[in-house]
Design a protein that fits this description.
Blueprint lengths: L5 H13 L3 H9 L4 E5 L4 H12 L5 E5 L6 H14 L4 E3 L3 H11 L8 H19 L3 E5 L16 E4 L4 E4 L7 H11 L60
Parallel strand pairs: 1-2, 1-4, 2-3, 4-6
Antiparallel strand pairs: 5-6
Helix pairs in contact: 3-7, 5-6
The structure holds iron/sulfur cluster (SF4).
Length: 247
């Protein structure tokens, strides 16, 4: 098995990926060697990537974080996507002991009470399962886009994730939502029906609400918090080793 150096690859990969279409980007990355993992939240961006992986039978592991608090629509979409593309989406779940410890300390829905409690919940239900999902991976593919929020405006095509010592690739970094929607329509990609009901970004049920016209795409995530940069920690490198988690 080829072993890549994620630091060296990140330096040159952005230019290579910029000149390729999405299938080309994914295919190139899949060919770099090692275990390549795509984490999907079943959001519309992630569905576009899953469609390309499934259609082109790319050797990329598709995984999701089954937090135990997802919408029924999201769970249904997992099944539909597996069926349409004849793929298996591996579900990583939190440990029951961690959930019990969280509930004992904060209450099952204690995440509304403080940022600390919210980060702790994301840590148990997202970050720890993510660590297991990425164990042994050399490359981590995400559906991050620059247009999703101000916090993601500088998203590169490829970066070295020092916390996890792997190459993080964001093949949709330069796509806007119109291009996403056009791809979905042209390729009959299954998407969460909640997007059409005002939910551009969908996470756990108790922490996601519909947005109002004119609000940023991610305004419905942890809406009760004041920090404009609120995330769950999945994509916040300096916090990845702590207890935070956001997708
Ligand atoms: S999004 Fe909400 S319910 Fe889901 S893990 Fe984070 S705090 Fe917990």
């Amino acid at each position: 098995m080829t072993v890549i150096n994620p630091i060296e690859e990140a330096e040159g990969l952005a230019d290579k990926l910029a000149g390729l279409d999405l299938a080309g980007r994914l295919s190139f990355v899949a060919g770099l060697g090692g275990r390549v993992v795509f984490t999907t939240s079943l959001g519309i961006e992630d569905q576009v990537i899953t469609a390309e992986i499934g259609t082109h039978r790319l050797p990329i592991d598709v995984v999701t974080l089954q937090t135990g608090r997802l919408f029924a629509e999201t769970l249904k979409l997992i099944d539909e996507t597996e069926s349409q593309y004849d793929i298996h989406i591996v579900k990583y779940e939190p440990e029951q002991a961690d959930i019990d410890a969280y509930a004992a300390k904060y209450g099952m829905n204690g995440f509304y009470e403080s940022v600390e409690a919210r980060h702790a919940c994301c840590g148990v239900r997202k970050l720890k399962p993510l660590a297991r999902a990425l164990a042994g991976a050399t490359i981590w593919i995400t559906g991050l886009r620059r247009g999703q929020s101000a916090n993601r405006a500088e998203t590169p095509f490829a970066e070295y994730d020092a916390e996890r010592h792997l190459l993080k690739v964001n093949p949709l970094a330069d796509w806007d939502i119109d291009k996403i929607n056009a791809f979905v329509a042209d390729n009959s990609v299954p998407v969460n029906p909640m997007h059409a009901r005002g939910y551009p970004s969908i996470g756990c049920e108790p922490c996601t609400r519909a947005i109002k016209p004119g609000e940023p795409e991610r305004a419905g995530r942890w809406w009760w918090e004041q920090d404009e940069k609120r995330e769950c920690g999945l994509h916040v490198a300096e916090e990845a080793a702590s207890s935070v988690a956001q997708q």
